[in-house]
Structure formats: C-alpha cells, structure tokens
Automatic annotation (TrEMBL):
Keyword RNA-binding belongs to the record: no
Keyword Transmembrane helix on entry: yes
Transmembrane segments: 296-314
Protein name in UniProt: F-box protein
Keyword field: Membrane, Transmembrane, Transmembrane helix
SUPFAM superfamilies attached to this UniProt entry: F-box domain, RNI-like
Highest taxon of the lineage: Eukaryota
Gene3D superfamilies reported for this sequence: Ribonuclease Inhibitor
Domain F-box: 19-72
InterPro entries: F-box-like_dom_sf (IPR036047), F-box_AtFBL13-like (IPR053781), F-box_dom (IPR001810), F-box_SCFL_complex_component (IPR053197), LRR_dom_sf (IPR032675)
Signal peptide: none
Pfam families according to UniProt: F-box (PF00646)
Xref: PANTHER family: OS06G0556300 PROTEIN, OS11G0201299 PROTEIN
Biological source species: Populus alba x Populus x berolinensis
High-level lineage: Eukaryota, Viridiplantae, Streptophyta, Embryophyta, Tracheophyta
C-alpha cells in the first residue's frame, strides 16, 4: 500500500472516530459548542454525518457576520436561506447580525421581524445603514419603534448606529421599557433619538446599562434593580432619579478637540450626574476628569460644606 493511500485511510479513520465521539454527546452540549461558531460554519457541520445533516436547523444561537462573505449578496442570501430552513418551532436564544456595509431595508425588515416573532432573548444588531429600530418596519432606512409593539421575551438588547423615531415630527417622551419591559441588559452605542424630547429608561428588571455616545435631547433613567451603569455622554442631558441598587458606575466624559480642557462644555450637568449615582459602591472616572476638573470638584465640595454649616447654625 502506498504512503499516500495509508495517509488517506488514517485520515478517514480519525474523522470517523471523531464523529462517533460527537455523536454520543447530548444535544444541549452540541448546541453550546456550536454557539461559539459563526452560523456559516455551523451549517457546514451538516456534512459530518447523518445526525448532523439537519442539526443546524434547530441551533438556538444565530450569529451572522458580513465579514465571512466576499459579497454582500451572498451574505444576504445565506441569512435568508438559513431563516427559511430553520425548524419553525425552534426557539432563538441569541440572534446576532453584524454588517459593516449598508444593507437594504427589505432585508433588515425580514431579519428583525423573524427574530422578534421567535421570541428572541438576546438581540444584537450592527448595521450603520439601518439607522433604526422599529415596527411596522422600515421606511427610508429607518426601523420605526412603536410603543404599541411589545417584545416581552427580550432580555438583552444591544444596538449600535441606530436611529429612534416614531415616523412623525418631534414628539414627547419615549420609554424603551414600554417596548421591552423585561430587559435585563441594555446597550446603546452611537444611537440617536433626536425626534423625541425625552428618552426614558425605566426598566423594572434592568440590571446592566451601557450608554455610549447616545445623541439626543434628554435621557431619564429610573431602574430600581440596576447594578452596573456605563455612561459616555454625547451632548445629552441626563436625569438619574432612582438607582437604589447601583454597585458600579463607569463615567467617561467625551471631550471634542475644539474644547480640549472644558469638560463642562461637553457635559454641563456632570455634577448632577454624580449626584444621581452617588450611592454606587464603586465609581470609575476617566483620568481626564480627575486631572482637569479637580479644581471645580474641590470648589463644589466647599460650597456644599458651607451650605451644611450654614444650615446647622442658622436653622
């Protein structure tokens, strides 16, 4: 027997033994293993054996990454094909779609509608062209979010480069917790809600909250169970009213180059923010705040000290 044939025989034997070992593993463990893979590669496991042929159709964790495809059309076709061929009664635990390229509104409509209709627990969307989140779905690259449309099963929501709108002119208050009342983890990065006077976050179950460069008029936060709060402001007025369970707050003041040493220009309500998170066990500040505004902080403390003394002696 030639050396090449011997190698091929050995390879097939090892492959067969490897598949046999995997075949004995329970479904939950296999689902867990596949959850770390891009869905593109999870689908490729269908070639391993008969058991694996349709196993991917019930995997509860979906991860679609545009970077895994050479062409945008191939990426879109793959995503829609996977969604069409999945088992209809299969629950989605995590749905993640990442695209650095703008995708059309029809595609995003189908994807998000599918994720929400299957009671997705964790939803992660990154698409700079979909300035958006909404229902009934999209108009001119915006996915309108209506308070009449609830996603009660969602516990984790991560949005980047999204634009909040109800499809009309500027309105009053919008409460994201009215849409997703059971959110535990909420992350908004580079999102805008300029069409609303106030964006309110009042989730009764909210535990972790991250807001980075959220652009708008006013933010109101009231979350009784919140334990972690990360905030990088971008010209938004923040009102913190009720965070009794807060353990760790991380504040990083963004300063544009036009005002290299004026934090109050970037965020004039800094001390109001500090008052709102004063009961946190740990507060992390970026070094620039401490370095540049230490003089203001000292003066602020002196003012409050004199106010306390005045109240004690004259009342």
């Amino acid at each position: 027997m030639s050396m090449e044939k011997q190698r091929e025989k050995t390879r097939k034997k090892l492959t067969s033994e490897g598949v046999d070992r995997l075949r004995d593993l329970p479904d939950d463990l296999l689902y867990y293993i596949l959850s770390f893979l891009d869905t593109k590669y999870a689908v490729l496991t269908s070639a391993l054996s008969k058991r694996w042929r349709f196993f991917w159709t019930s995997v509860p964790d979906l991860n679609f990454d545009r970077e895994s495809f050479d062409k945008l059309t191939s990426f879109k076709n793959f995503v829609l094909t996977v969604l069409q061929r999945r088992q209809r009664d299969s629950k989605i635990r995590r749905f993640r779609l990442t695209s650095r390229n703008n995708v059309d509104r029809s595609f995003m409509n189908q994807v998000i509608d599918y994720a929400l209709s299957h009671n997705t627990d964790h939803l992660f969307l990154l698409d700079p062209g979909c300035q958006c989140l909404s229902h009934p779905l999209v108009t001119s690259k915006r996915f309108y979010l209506s308070e009449s449309f609830g996603v009660t099963a969602l516990t984790t929501l991560h949005l980047e480069h999204c634009y909040f709108s109800d499809g009309s002119e500027r309105t009053g208050c919008f409460d994201i917790s009215a849409i997703c009342p059971n959110l535990i983890n909420l992350c908004l990065i580079h999102c805008a809600f300029g069409m609303f006077e106030v964006l309110k976050i009042s989730g009764p179950q909210l535990v972790n909250l991250t807001l980075e460069y959220v652009c708008g008029n006013k933010l109101e936060i009231s979350a009784p169970k919140l334990t972690f709060f990360k905030f990088i402001p971008y010209y938004s007025h923040l009102s913190v009213t009720h965070l009794p369970s807060l353990e760790h707050a991380n504040v990083d003041i963004y300063r544009p180059y036009a005002y290299p040493r004026k934090i109050e220009v970037c965020y004039p309500n800094f001390f109001k923010l500090m008052q709102g998170i004063h009961n946190a066990q740990f507060i992390t500040l970026n070094p620039e705040i401490i370095e540049v505004r230490l003089d203001i902080l000292f003066n602020y403390l002196l003012i409050h000290l004199f106010a306390l003394l005045f109240a004690r002696f004259f009342h």
